[in-house]
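Good morning,

Both structures are done.
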Amino acid sequence: MKKSSPSSVGEILAGLMKKTGLGKQMDQARIWDRWDELAGPHLADHGRPHAIRDNTLLVAVDGAVWMNKYAYHKWDILKRINGLFGRELISDIFIMLTPDDAPTPPRDHTD
């Protein structure tokens, strides 16, 4: 019987990422980092990911007008998210209003 060479830490972590929920959570966390790209800069200025529950992304938006705009573009955003990961990571997007007492901080764009 041939003895296999020891696995590197990177190989072990890569295997765990594929076999456990950790990999899915890490991918989901990347949505926050890539939000401007996924939603587009115009929408990203007025909404942001809030949480993920049961493969549904909750997006908090600034007002009713932006809620309608996000609703109109939600399937495009969903397609970009799942395209980024090459699989269905998010199955739906739920859009909610940001509470009035939680003002949205201004965003700093570097173009």
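Second structure follows.
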Amino acid sequence: MDRTPEADADLLRIATDLHHGSARLSRLLRSARPAEGLSIAKLAVLERLHRQGPATATVLASYLRIQPQSLTRLLAFLERRKLIQRKSDKADRRQSHIRITDAGTRLLSDDVRARRVHLAQAIGEALTPVERELLRLASTLIERVADATEHMRSEEQEFDES
């Protein structure tokens, strides 16, 4: 890989543009959600449980990067709405495993679908067919960058633990 100062500056410009654009788009999509909908943190819990299966409160708090105590009200709300279910661990009764319910999966799916429809409408209005194809290709590249970022992060965590 070319590691000249010019190449590094060019990569930094690309990273800055990508970060700004993706953060702005993410904010706009979040604000397009109905006011009475679930908070981003509650949706994040449902999404984590849907994608990776049951988890403990400690794992969920770590995923959200919040203190386990801060998660208590959030989980209680989701449980009252029957969007999650807790089950005590047979080996350690103090520990419980939290899973998403069918109602939680439906709610999450509806929320994601609404945001995707909103995004699809914007793409349809703003881009030409050629630009849409470029965006489709760019989205696969963004996934590859996300994979590389995740890989780098896991290597850093392994290094920190040793």
